[in-house]
User: Fold this.
Amino acid sequence: MKLCLFDLDHTLLRLRLDPIPVYAEVISQHGFEVDFNELERAYMESWDLYLTRGFEFPTDSEAYLHCAGHTLRLVGIEQDNARIAKVIMRRFEESKSVDAYGDAIATIKEIRACGLRIGIATGRWHDPSGDLEMVGLSEYLDVVYFSGMFGTQKDAPDYWMRLLEREGLAAGEVVLIDDNAPAVATARAAGITAFRIERPDSPIPTPDPVDLTDLHALPEMLESL
Assistant:
């Protein structure tokens, strides 16, 4: 193995703010009441919209703002839609909305000490460098890949083919740790060794098999490859 790739959200980074209560609080403050389950469904539908169309926006902030407005429309809020969406997004911008999991940096440092290069492979459409610097991960990374670089998401074979081409590596020289089951399956189909992690606080738990629930066992698993 020469390169160890990590997914970002819910693999190395955790959300410090649960978005659904934030949405619900702001909506209520503006005089609207919505069913919590309906709001959650709307938010997840808007997240899927980001994953398919987020590349249409020049920045991640604009993409997320568009999705916030979309969520509000799905729950029937048209009046003051743009203003309420901006208030919601400001809540996230004014707080440290993401943080590194407690085992992230220590595990990466241990793996780097064994001679592996460390990279990010995220489905975000825009460069995540700001978040990486904020949580202290940047200095431990050799390369960062995001969907906007390849024009596709990680459940598409092209993502991994283009990444391998950029690296000049064979699939067998790369390992991936990711919480996204379709991404893991697609990477495996491309010949990459991929482990699926599902953190206890994952917002998208699935019945798919899980290899890890944290990163503590990863260095030993890599040694056995």
Observations:
- The chain is about 45% helix and 15% strand.
- The mean pLDDT is 94.
